[in-house]
Amino acid sequence: MTHFFDRIAQNPIIATIQDLNTLDDALESPCEIIFLLKGNIFYLKEISNKIKLKNKGLYIHIDSIDGFSKDTWGLEYIIKNISPDGIITEKSNLVKLSKDMGMFTIQRLFISDSYSLDNAISSIKKMRPNAVELLPGIMPKIIRKIINDTKIPVIASGLITDKYDLNSSLDAGATAVATSNRNIWNI
Fold first, then answer.
1. pTM (two decimals)
2. For residue range 88-137, what is the model confidence (pLDDT) as tens digits?
3. CA-to-CA distance for 7 and 5, rounded, in angstroms?
4. For the chain, is the Cβ count within 10 Å smaller at the N or the C terminus?
5. Residue 27, number of CB atoms within 10 A of its CB
């Protein structure tokens, strides 16, 4: 579990891969962690091996991997056969299952209004993931509130477009910032 936090201490910027054409850039970047948001059953092992050869942490957003069922069996297959460093999911049941299987688990949450914020805080308190990925990540006040209310580390993600967004999120208390913006990977 501390492996994630050790890597973040070295570099709080996480390379998010939404387009596999950017994987090589992420592998050459100073980012210590890669969030994989794209892929399918046929290429997942190959992608995992490339990332591990570069000694980077791999966290798979299980909800967006094509060819897997988003249930216990799909999760178990990924954990046993792909061996990521962690799982990212929006589904509360998969947060619990992933934690029960001993995986570092990141709960991905979209905040669009005060109702979704209240639901998110309730879910975090109930599920107790190892960390939360908050989207959009450009809400310093909301980052602070979630951290204060749950005491769970927050990863700011989504709509991070420049150094100002990066610094605002980190200054608000985010543990890390995840972005697909290749310019930010090298800051």
1. 0.96
2. 999 999 999 999 999 999 999 999 999 999 999 999 999 999 999 999 99
3. 5
4. N
5. 16
- CB count within 10 Å of CB 44 equals 22
pLDDT at residue 173 is higher than 60: yes
User: Quick one: residue 14, left, alpha or beta (phi over 0 = left, psi -120 to 50 = alpha)?
Assistant: beta
- Torsion angles phi and psi, residue 156, rounded to 5: -80, 135
Eight-state DSSP code of residue 187: -
Tell me how far apart the alpha carbons of residues 72 and 113 are, in angstroms, rounded to a whole number: 31
Peptide bond connecting 30 to the previous residue in cis, omega within 30 degrees of 0: no
Q: Tell me, what amino acid is at 54?
A: K
- Return the structure tokens found at 10: 């070295």
Closest CA to 33 of 148, 143, 178: 178
* Angle at the Cα of 14 from the Cα atoms of 33 and 125, rounded to 5 degrees: 95
- On the 0-12 / 13-18 / 19+ scale of CB atoms within 10 A, 16 is buried
Q: Is the pLDDT of residue 52 over 80?
A: yes
Tokens of 33: 């962690």
Please state, in angstroms and as integers, the Cα–Cα distance from residue 5 to each residue in 8, 138, 159, following that order: 5, 21, 23
Count of CB atoms within 10 A of residue 134's CB? Answer: 28
